[in-house]
């Protein structure tokens, strides 16, 4: 398993932007498929975005398409989530996740495919 640490969350007004980072330990991070999920109070964890090992293939949930962008820097062992045009309904704890067994997934949206999770970072969007 890989150790994941998220950062970059905070309080922002609607329409604003944040960039989340997920720092990963381990030499083989660059070979893992990665994802971002979020969980709002009283709701189930939901998929936000996923990316393959090279960064050439990405997927985003319909609710964030055109506003959020997932990317990775393999030289820095870091995963990113650029969030623009934030809405109050984006308020949640955001988690990054890694699949250490595969570099590309048929679907990035299934939580049980990931074997490592970060501790989460809170994002709060005020109206």
Task: For the structure shown, list the relevant keywords.
127 residues; mainly beta; four-stranded antiparallel beta sheet; 0% helix; globular
Number of helices: 0
The helix/strand series, from N terminus to C terminus, equals EEEEEEEEEEE
Instruction: Output mean pLDDT.
Output: 95
Total DSSP E strands: 11
Overall form: globular
- Class inferred from helices and paired strands: mainly beta
What does this structure look like?
The chain contains no helices and eleven strands. The chain is an all-beta fold. It has strands at 4-7, 10-13, 18-24, 33-39, 46-51, 58-60, 68-73, 78-83, 92-99, 116-117, 121-126. Strands 2, 4, 5, 6, 9, 10 and 11 form a seven-stranded mixed β-sheet that branches. A four-stranded antiparallel β-sheet has the order 1-3-8-7, with no helix packed on it. 0% of the residues lie in helices and 46% in strands. Strand 7 (68-73) and strand 8 (78-83) form a beta hairpin. The mean pLDDT is 95. The protein is globular and about 40 Å long.
Summarize the structure.
The protein is mainly beta and 127 residues long. It has strands spanning 4-7, 10-13, 18-24, 33-39, 46-51, 58-60, 68-73, 78-83, 92-99, 116-117, 121-126.
Write the layout of secondary structure elements.
Blueprint: E1 4-7, E2 10-13, E3 18-24, E4 33-39, E5 46-51, E6 58-60, E7 68-73, E8 78-83, E9 92-99, E10 116-117, E11 121-126
Parallel strand pairs: 2-11
Antiparallel strand pairs: 1-3, 3-8, 4-5, 4-9, 5-6, 7-8, 9-10, 9-11
């Amino acid at each position: 398993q890989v150790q994941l640490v998220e950062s970059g969350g905070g309080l922002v007004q609607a329409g604003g932007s944040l960039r989340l980072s997920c720092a990963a330990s381990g030499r083989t991070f660059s070979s893992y498929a990665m994802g971002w999920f979020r969980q709002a109070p009283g709701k189930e964890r939901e998929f936000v975005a996923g990316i393959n090992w090279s960064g050439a293939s990405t997927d985003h949930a319909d609710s964030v398409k055109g506003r959020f962008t997932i990317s990775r820097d393999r030289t820095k062992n870091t995963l990113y989530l650029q969030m623009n045009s934030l809405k109050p309904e984006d308020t949640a704890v955001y988690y990054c996740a890694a699949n250490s067994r595969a570099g590309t997934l048929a679907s990035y949206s299934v939580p049980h495919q990931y074997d490592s999770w970060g501790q989460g970072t809170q994002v709060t969007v005020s109206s």
